[in-house]
Design goal:
Blueprint lengths: L3 E4 L2 E4 L10 H5 L2 E9 L2 E2 L2 H15 L7 H14 L5 E8 L19 E8 L7 H5 L1 E7 L14 H12 L4 E6 L2 E5 L3 E6 L2 E4 L10 H12 L3 E4 L4 H5 L3 E6 L3 E8 L2 E2 L7 H17 L2
The structure holds N-(5'-phosphopyridoxyl)-D-alanine.
């Protein structure tokens, strides 16, 4: 049975779902997206993802095509129709397809946003083997545009970063700007020194991770110290632990940075504990 996806008001088998060649998402990367994790058949951190979506749309002056309740219903319907127990839902909204190519934005009265959603079933995601061994990252220059706080579909450089990591025998890359780590190619980056969790503060330089917000809240509730400030690769290589967070990896330990082993070279207690708390609490709050 083929996957059922959602396109502009219709639920269709994936082979039948189409968007126009003039869609600005396709021609200009003029669109935004969200990835919401599914655990035990429910949506995690859903209000956070919708709040960020609304902000991304507003920053780019793209019309909001549907209300929160409608989007929640579409997400739930796709989970139901595709029997997703663990995995994620990808949502993309573009400025739409004006019927030709033009740099100027089309009139929002005549060009409606394109809305696409599909599921990615990943059984075993919460129990991923990588979380038990930890991952290896390399450092690369951050040459992305200056509005990384907007979750746009311009993902060419992050894709190239993942390929650079793969070529170097690593799993992912941390991006560095003016000597300090901004974030991972598709996740937020952290180090742990003593009892303190260190991660770059929020600005236009990084995506305001929904998992980041939850994890930092849980860390503070568990009386852990959190310091929001930039850190260098050299400082990270001397840290006791390192990890990343995202809706697709939750809390993922990092055990090697640019060839240097972090701590004991195995996932550390802070990352392991935060992963446990995150999974437990986000499943409890899932909708
Ligand atoms: N990526 N930073 C970047 C550059 C990201 O692309 C992501 C998410 C994050 C973490 O955000 P969140 O915790 O809200 O998932 C940080 C998603 C998972 C992706 O592109 O697949």
């Amino acid at each position: 049975m083929s996957r059922i996806v959602y396109v502009n008001g219709e639920y269709l088998p994936e082979e039948e779902a189409t968007v126009s060649i003039f869609d600005r998402g396709f021609l200009m990367a003029d669109g935004v997206y969200e990835v919401t994790a599914v655990l035990e058949g429910k949506l995690t951190d859903f209000p956070g993802h919708m709040a960020r979506l609304e902000r991304s749309l507003a920053e780019l002056d793209i019309q909001k095509p549907a209300e929160f309740d409608d989007l929640l219903e579409i997400h739930r319907e796709l989970v139901r129709r595709n029997d997703v127990v663990e995995g994620g839902i990808y949502l993309q909204i573009t400025r739409g397809a004006p019927g030709d190519r033009d740099f100027a934005f089309p009139d929002p009265e005549t060009t409606k946003p394109t809305v696409v959603l599909f599921t990615q079933s990943k059984p075993g995601l919460a129990n991923s083997p990588a979380a038990k061994t930890g991952i290896k990252v390399i450092a690369i220059d951050d040459i992305r545009w200056g509005r990384r706080d907007i979750k746009t579909v311009q993902l060419l450089y992050p894709s190239m970063g993942k390929m650079m990591a793969k070529a170097a025998g690593a799993d992912d890359a941390w991006m560095v700007q003016d000597g300090a780590v901004t974030e991972g190619t598709s996740n937020n980056a952290y180090i742990v020194k003593g009892c303190t969790i260190i991660t770059r503060g929020l600005s236009n330089d990084i995506l305001h991770g929904i998992t980041r917000a939850a994890v930092l809240r849980f860390a503070e509730e568990a009386q852990m110290q959190v310091e929001e400030r930039p850190f260098t690769i050299a400082e990270a290589q001397q840290a006791d632990e390192a990890f990343v967070t995202s809706a697709s990896t939750f809390v993922m330990p990092v055990v090697e940075i640019d060839g240097a082993t972090i701590g004991t070279g195995t996932p550390g207690p802070v990352a392991k504990r935060l992963r446990e708390i995150y999974l437990e609490e986000s499943i409890k709050a899932a909708v």
